[in-house]
Amino acid sequence: MSRRTRKAAPSDAGAARCTVTVCRGCCCGTPKIPGIDHAAQLAGLRRALEGTAQVRVTDCLDACEHANVIVVQPSAEGRKNGGRPVWLGLVNDPGATDDITTWIEAGGPGLTDPPGILDLYIFRPSRRVQAELHDT
After folding, report:
1. What is the DSSP annotation of 43-108?
2. What pLDDT score was predicted for residue 13?
3. Among 36, 136, 132, which Cα is nearest to 91's?
4. pLDDT at 9
């Protein structure tokens, strides 16, 4: 993942909030995944989570079989409570995006359990892929 694709947050805000990483690489966010307005999905996430979470865009997360991929990383408080990053795949309808934003607004990983419907979207990527995201 390139550091150029990350949008910096104010230094005091990043750790206190969840970070939402939206894949927009070779498959996610492209016409390869039809039937969704990818730009509207990203704009909706940014609008809904403004002031609540940092939303950043990255190049390919190498989980193309799960496109569109969104990773929700816990806030500092969520990490203290045992929260870990949650990988969500096949996020290709507005209802799923709404469920994700509602969960993050309620606290996100480590603070609030995700709505049951999100169990359909959660997946575990390879250790290599996870390490690449967390090393940046």
Report:
1. HHHHHHHTTTEEEEEES--S-GGG-S-EEEEPPHHHHHTT---EEE----SHHHHHHHHHHHHTT-
2. 52
3. 36
4. 40
DSSP of 12-36: TTTTTSEEEEEE-SSSTTSTTS-SS
Using the 8-state DSSP alphabet, how is residue 112 labeled?
A: S
Burial 56-81 (b: 16+ CB within 10 A, else e): bbbebbbbbebbbbbbbbbbebbbee
Across the range 82-86, mean pLDDT stands at 96
Give the integer Cα–Cα distance in Å for 36 and 7: 24
The pTM (predicted TM-score) of the whole model is: 0.84
* Residue 14 pLDDT exceeds 90: no
* Residue, of 2 and 102, whose pLDDT is higher: 102
If DSSP codes are grouped into helix, strand and coil, which group holds residue 122?
strand
